[in-house]
Amino acid sequence: MKLGIMLEEEEDGTYSVHCPALKGCHSQGTTKEEALKNIQDAIELYLEVSHDRARKSLVKQPRITMVEMAI
Known about the structure:
This protein is α+β, with helices and mostly antiparallel strands and 71 residues long. The protein has a single domain (6-59), classed as Double Stranded RNA Binding Domain (2-Layer Sandwich), CATH 3.30.160. Helix content is 39%, strand content 17%. The protein has a three-stranded antiparallel β-sheet, covered by helices on one side. Strand 2 (15-18) and strand 3 form a beta hairpin. The longest helix has 28 residues, at 32-59. It starts with 5 loop residues before the first strand and ends in a 12-residue tail after the last helix. The mean pLDDT is 91.
């Protein structure tokens, strides 16, 4: 899966980064490399939590089946 991210240098020389496709998925770092690693970790956690929430909601809806698809 490929996602676009926005990397911005702050006035103090640190970096903030976010993924527009994943609402609320933000991170930061003291270097570009650290910020990019941090947003990768944040994206992985975001997707894991989203997947868990979707699975739990299916328990209440027995007629719906969750199918995983690689993108």
